[in-house]
Specification:
Order of helices and strands: EEEEEEEEE
Radius of gyration: 14 Å
Distance between the termini: 12 Å
Largest sheet: 9 strands, antiparallel
CATH topology of one domain: Jelly Rolls
Strand content: over 45%
CATH architecture of one domain: Sandwich
Helix content: under 10%
CATH superfamily of one domain: Jelly Rolls
Shape: globular
Structural class: mainly beta
Length: 113
Amino acid sequence: MGKPALEFFDPEMVPWQPEAGIEGLFSKTLARDPDKGSYSRLLKFLPGTDTTQAGVQKHPHWEEIWIVSGAIHDLSLNKTFTAGMYACRPPGMLHGPWTSQYGAITFEVRNYD
């Protein structure tokens, strides 16, 4: 089936949902493939968000991330990444955990193909 065909729409129409049980972390899924599980979403870090409880991440899928606004700090790498930066992670690539001192919004595409 794949992701649905969607013409331009205002993402503000999609509500933010708490993400992964982490205080200050929210997501809104914009499009999802119900068969394969691939999706596109926005992820919001409120100021002070810390994802340490989730630990270092690795996924069985491709993940692309673009930082729309703000900044996130990778605690494992001890590096801060800012608005406009992009990452493309193959399956199994380690990343995180993250903190965001002032908040951030990222756009993510996860591909299970």
